[in-house]
Amino acid sequence: MDNGFKQAIKYSGSGAGLARLINITKNAVYAWKGLIPFAWLERVALVTGLPIYSLHPVLREAEQKIRADERQRLFDAGRLLVVEGENTEL
């Protein structure tokens, strides 16, 4: 385990942990432009226990779109009930 991933464990609990880890680890380049290698994200997810989609804005957007599409599909099929802003699957 390289030093960057030892630091991942140390900083995984803080809000700025991923940003700090990106600065520490040599594999991550230009994170603010979304150029993080996917294999690196997989390793960080494994070490920190975070879901991989939460580690990168593009993956987070894709995951949110999938969830929205699934909610719409359930609603269209009559299996999703919306009550006062809450979604309830039937």
Q: How many DSSP helices? A: 4
Helix percentage range:
40-55%
The largest sheet, given as strand count, sense and whether it forms a barrel, is: 2 strands, antiparallel
Rg calc: 17 Å
Number of domains: 2
Shape: elongated
Gap from first CA to last CA: 45 Å
Low-confidence stretches: 11-15, 24-33
* Beta-strand residue percentage: 5-15%
Strand line-up in the sheet with most strands: 1-2
Order of helices and strands: HHHHEE
The total count of strands amounts to 2
Short précis:
This protein is mainly alpha-helical and 90 residues long.
Task: Tag the structure with descriptive keywords.
single chain; 90 residues; 2 domains; elongated; two-stranded antiparallel sheet; mainly alpha
Secondary-structure blueprint of this entry?
Blueprint: H1 3-11, H2 17-24, H3 38-48, H4 57-76, E1 80-83, E2 86-89
Helix pairs in contact: 1-2
Describe the structure.
The chain is mainly α and 90 residues long. The chain folds into two domains: 52 residues, no CATH class; 35 residues. It has four helices and two strands. Helix 1 runs antiparallel to helix 2. The radius of gyration is 17 Å and the shape is elongated. About 17% of the residues have low confidence.
